[in-house]
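Try it yourself: sequence plus S-adenosylmethionine, in.
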Amino acid sequence: MVDVCNIQVMKPLLEQYGFRFSKAKGQNFLIAPWVPESIAREAGVDDTAGVLEIGPGIGSLTQQLCLRAEKVCAVELDSRLKPILGQTVGEFHNLELLWGDVLKLDIPALVRERFRGLRPMACANLPYYITSPILTALLEADCFESVTVMVQKEVAQRIAAAPGTADYSAFTIFCQYYAQPRLLFDVSAHCFLPQPKVTSSVIQLQVRTSRNWNVPDEALFFRVVRAGFAMRRKKLSNGLASGFPELGKQGAADVIAACDLGENVRGETLSIPQFASIAREIAARKPR
Ligand code: SAM
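Structure, out:
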């Protein structure tokens, strides 16, 4: 197996094909072998797993996934990497490479067709410029057992944040609505070529098998969440009144009181069940 994390091997390989890193495509390749090994191991990839990898690059994580999983599908945007991946992962018969933009992929269909009878997982060292859209697509696809990804450390902290902390955001609630986050480990910039300007973290999102939030209308729930964070450090009643003009100031105050929350409560302190109760209260007041 080609030792892709070894810089003495990687550099000549890239030069052989005249490959230049693309900043626009978020290309920071791993050069510390313990990182892809740990990601694959911590993700729990074994011969019962079907793994979707986003952005194989030159194949460092792909190799570790292929060594463990029954089947790996890896989707890569940059077709210049074709001949290099041919050398680094061409030997794996359980690997299917898909060329294109992961955001244009019908993920549920892929999982249904390629991972039948397997535990579907997503694993990646994500291209950081599209972290949120990719995580949104993976969670909304609602077909993975878990999603284990490397992201910027500050994004990982946002995903795992608790109510009332500075990192808690609408994106936190989105992720935690679908999954339970587990921060795994940090990865310093010198583990990549080229080095990113930030520290990275690997985080696992264990997708919830049942979401007992009592949310009859998800679109309304997420509208409430956005309204709750739209005016940080201001009273929730202001955010609700502006996000739901149909309620008016008094209606917003009534909703908050009906949910047993204090009139000065701020959106960024609320838990998912509390946002859910506000959404139910607003739904109950909608004219039929
Ligand atoms: N997995 C490799 C590693 O860990 O060394 C490379 C990770 S690099 C951070 C991100 C990879 O995602 C790059 O190979 C990049 O070309 C690819 N990529 C960027 N945007 C993409 C997209 N929209 N769809 C699929 N792959 C993408």
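One thing you can check immediately is this: Residues 25-30, 54-57, 60-61, 75-78, 101-103, 125, 127, 130 surround S-adenosylmethionine (CB under 6 Å).
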